[in-house]
Amino acid sequence: xxxxxxxxxxxxxxxxxxxCGQTVAAQxxxxxxxxxxxxxxxxxxxxxxxxxxLDVSLRTQEPAGTTRGLxxxxxxxxxxxLCDRGETLRDSAGTWWAVTATRLEGDLxxxxxxxTRTPAACGVGVVAQVWLVDALGAAVLLPRxxxxxxxxxxxxxxxxxxxxxxxxxxxxxxxxxxxxG
Length: 181
Description:
This protein has 181 residues and is of the alpha+beta class. The chain has one domain (31-174). The protein contains 4 helices and 5 strands; from the N terminus they run H-H-E-E-H-E-E-H-E. Strand 1 (79-91) and strand 2 (94-105) form a beta hairpin. Helix 3 runs antiparallel to helix 4. This is DUF3558 domain-containing protein. It comes from Cellulomonas xiejunii.
């Protein structure tokens, strides 16, 4: 009886490994995000997703990468920080590409539910980036494609705007002063 049981187990194992002729789509691996204390729309990962690079004149230190992913167990989001391409800004240095940082509050449960499911596929183009921030300022950067999900966009739209700020990120055109001839 034992030999027959082992033989049946071996057959089942072979069939399971072979997939019995059925194709099973592999689920993408989504990591747990690194918890940071410095959620910023000028983060290297955020700017890269927005198609920008922080101008050298604005760097205070060497940019560090952020591990994106899902919030760790027990993380309780209090606000969301939405980062998107902004308008251009002008100053004495020239015209800057800007990033709009929008801090949002309200019922974050729908946002967290949508963000923790399998990320949607994105087309080409710039996609807004989302940080979840707890009451003490600890934050996680959601997967790059999280904002591609229409349900996430709807959940963001249901939140109230606390603050909106434009940050210069990349110098698009330098100002040239013309000297009288």
